[in-house]
Amino acid sequence: MLKNSESLCHVCGSESNGMYHYGAQVCRACAAFFRRALTSPYPKKCRMNQKCDFLTKNGYFKCKFCRLKKCYDVGMSSENFQLNRDVHNTACRIPETVGTFLGRSNLIIFSKSSSCDSVKSVINLENLIEKAMRIMKQSPESPIFVRNSLEKLAFSLGPILKTNQNINSPNYGKIYGMDQSMAQIEHEILTVTKWLTHFDGFLDLAPKLQIQIFQACWNLWWKLERLATTAMEIRRNENLRKMKRNSLLYKFDKTRIDVSWLTRYSFEELKFFLDLPTEFYLDDLTIEMLDLNPTEIELSFMLSQLCFHYVGKRFQGEILRISEKFQQILADDLHDYYTIEMINPYYMKRLAKMMKINNMIQLEAYKNRSRTELAFVFDIFNVEISHSEIFRDY
After folding, report:
1. Beta partners for 63?
2. pLDDT for 298
3. List of residues 6+ apart from 111 with CB closer than 8 A
4. Contact 243, 282 (CB under 8 A)
5. Which of 117, 303, 368, 384 is the most exposed place for a label (fewest CB within 10 A)?
6. Cβ 327 vs Cβ 309: under 8 Å
7. Domain 5-85 in CATH 2.10.50.10
8. Which CATH architecture does the domain made up of 121-391 adopt?
């Protein structure tokens, strides 16, 4: 049977697959020999003064030097080696974008304005701080006859839970802009301040320490309170109770939220930096709260423990010592509640669930803080705030 000369190896004359290796049509054996010969550290010599026939009749190669010379003669070269011929292993080049060019995330490209005419508005919260200080100087509106500090906090928490709007009726009927945002922030800060005045140990602190504590913990307090009221609403609503894990409970109309007074970026871009929940899901944290179903005494302990533990870790020093003392007082009150009122000395399992929820909220707060710090680094806000510490953990 005659062999097709077009498919023969140009070096040894054996049948090849017709493909080019190193720049010439050769068989795989000669291609492998050429690759090994180039990488071999040993020089090759011909014993017949380069006048031998390197290929014997029985197909054996007796002279490596002459075989390598024949490889060069037919055009083989290491420079002709072809890369990325396999379809599944082809390297693809990332398309050039603004993000890759600038070395920044293409989610949002933040560029500080070069214009010197850009003037930021100033939001002065001095009046709000003064209102909070006046509340702290006053005693509770009416005398409260309870056994300990924890019961006193629970007594003041009840009206807050009853008046707080549930997740199905948010006050988003109109455009939610600057006036509505500042009104809500003022309501939340003053509510937490008034709640803290029901703890005698807090009232005994110096005004400077009181301000530091409520500025740092007011937003964290509301995160836990909203979680509790969401769980309450789910228990009251039969349709919500039937929902599966991670189901959407409620979604705000984001088109009614105006953030143009705060930033030049859209609301979706702003959510990358700030914790602005517009959707409520039946997530793991909500399910944990549903399973716990805390009483007002237990929820009051969770709120106070979350706040005092957080500010102690954040400020250290004197505030850490004060917060540890407060936590010990409230822990003793909780123990009395379980052993005397509930007659349940084996409450460690419930306490572990309470601490698990608080730890999950704190962990989320630490993650949000790093994003908020990036917002200030990139200078994304149109306003300057007189007391920016209030929003450090927003």
Report:
1. none
2. 97
3. none
4. yes
5. 117
6. yes
7. no
8. Orthogonal Bundle (1.10)
- pLDDT tens digit sequence for 287-338: 999 999 999 999 999 999 999 999 999 999 999 999 999 999 999 999 999 9
Residue limits of CATH 3.30.50.10 in the chain:
5-85
**Residue 267 token pair:** 């609301």
Residue extent(s) of CATH 1.10.565.10 domains in the chain: 121-391
Question: Would the pTM count as exceeding 0.85?
Answer: no
CA distance 394 to 392: 6
